[in-house]
């Protein structure tokens, strides 16, 4: 014999959450068809307990996608056999997939609902799957209802309706369990539907990561460039590098020319020295009282001139004074060479007239030897003065090139990261638009 009753539960919002608010308990007993001569036992009618006991309202957390004022129709049925089979309760609710397309105009947001194309057979398999049911199984433990996903699916039936909705039915021999499981399934399906499972959603998460990373990279590079530009050695970097490159090239030519002239003078001096039966002319010059000091002074002066010429903006007054001193020292050194030559000739050739304007061929070679010795000394002093300055200029040139390379690297990285940031922003906006047009949320619909 079968006896059925219908009970309606309404889902209402309370302070941003939803609770089941039951109506007054009402039990309408309907007589079922029975065989001829069969009567309803009075003892069964008096002894049967109500199909519904008002439970303590259970609070259900809910996300923003669930419709307000949704009604869940729960049909509770009982079947009693004369063999005293325990009654079976059934709780049902309807589920419908709704696609949301959002369009923002000024400060107002309008939402248009459209019916998406959904494969109901596939959807039913998803709703009965272990992955979807597992959150409900976990939440049911708070009500001391211990079910496995397989046990939950065994008593779960999902039937497609003609209007595209899905009717979710859950049967259990406990009225309390049937009601709690039903509303927990409703909440689980809503939560699952509220999660985004489009490919664009996963791409959006990656786009958010890329956007955050690109934003951080741009900020880091901008800070690094700002700090670099405050360094004293990075001021007017390009202009300094160009000027130094030009001056280094001039010094290179000057040093090369000096070294070539020095080598040629040394070769000529050595060749001439072997032809003369005299001691070294350089040794004779070094024995002069003032010659070594004047030569050292000239060497230092040429070093100061090279230092000034190596600067980006040489001091013209300082250079003018140095050039005058260089000219004076050169004249004094020439006088020392003439004195040394005369002393040597008078010592080696006493019969030579002191006022003779021309020298015999052999003595003319001696004069050339003194001149070449002095030239070797001058070129050697100049080479020793220029070489360290040229070496320092080369090192500074390398240093400026490294600074320029570092600055260029930072600027290139910043340009790349800015382009990545722009692309990430565009990708993020495109995916958000795509998701707003294609996203589907599942709602519990009124029966």
TrEMBL record:
Coiled-coil intervals: 204-231
The keyword Coiled coil is assigned to this record: yes
Keyword match Coiled coil: yes
Keywords: Coiled coil
Name of the protein in question: Lipopolysaccharide biosynthesis protein
UniProt source species: Thermoleptolyngbya oregonensis NK1-22
């Amino acid at each position: 014999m079968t006896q059925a009753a219908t009970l309606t539960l309404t889902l209402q919002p309370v302070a941003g959450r939803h609770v089941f608010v039951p109506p007054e308990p009402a039990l309408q007993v309907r007589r079922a068809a029975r065989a001829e001569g069969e009567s309803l036992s009075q003892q069964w009618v008096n002894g049967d307990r109500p199909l519904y006991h008002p439970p303590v309202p259970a609070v259900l957390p809910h996300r923003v996608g669930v419709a307000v004022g949704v009604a869940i129709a729960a049909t509770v049925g009982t079947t009693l056999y004369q063999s005293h089979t325990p009654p079976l309760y059934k709780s049902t609710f309807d589920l419908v997939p709704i696609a949301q397309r959002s369009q923002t105009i000024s400060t107002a947001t309008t939402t248009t609902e459209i019916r998406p194309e959904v494969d109901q057979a596939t959807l039913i398999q998803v709703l009965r799957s272990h992955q979807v049911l597992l959150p409900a199984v976990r939440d049911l433990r708070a009500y001391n209802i211990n079910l496995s996903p397989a046990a939950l699916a065994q008593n779960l039936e999902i039937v497609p309706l003609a209007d595209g909705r899905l009717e979710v039915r859950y049967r259990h021999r406990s009225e309390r369990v049937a009601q709690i499981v039903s509303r927990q399934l409703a909440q689980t399906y809503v939560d699952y539907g509220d999660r985004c499972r489009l490919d664009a959603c996963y791409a959006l998460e990656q786009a958010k990561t890329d956007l955050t990373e690109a934003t951080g990279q741009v900020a880091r590079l901008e800070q690094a460039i700002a700090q670099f530009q405050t360094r004293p050695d990075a001021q007017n970097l390009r202009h300094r590098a160009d000027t130094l490159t030009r001056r280094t090239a001039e010094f290179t030519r000057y040093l090369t020319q000096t070294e070539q002239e020095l080598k040629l003078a040394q070769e000529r001096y050595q060749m001439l020295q072997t032809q003369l039966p005299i001691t070294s002319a350089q040794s004779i010059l070094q024995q002069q009282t003032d010659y070594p000091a004047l030569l050292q002074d000239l060497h230092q002066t040429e070093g100061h001139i090279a230092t000034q010429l190596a600067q980006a903006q040489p001091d013209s007054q300082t250079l003018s004074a140095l050039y005058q001193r260089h000219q004076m020292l050169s004249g004094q050194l020439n006088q020392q060479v003439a004195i040394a030559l005369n002393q040597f000739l008078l010592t080696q050739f006493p019969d030579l007239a002191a006022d003779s304007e021309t020298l015999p061929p052999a003595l003319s070679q001696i004069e050339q030897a003194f001149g070449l010795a002095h030239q070797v000394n001058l070129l050697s002093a100049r080479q020793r003065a220029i070489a360290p300055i040229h070496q320092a200029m080369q090192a500074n040139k390398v240093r400026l090139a490294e600074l320029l390379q570092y600055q260029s690297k930072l600027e290139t990285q910043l340009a790349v990261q800015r382009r990545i940031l722009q692309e990430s922003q565009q990708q993020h906006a495109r995916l958000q638009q795509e998701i707003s047009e294609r996203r589907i949320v599942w709602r519990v619909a009124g029966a």
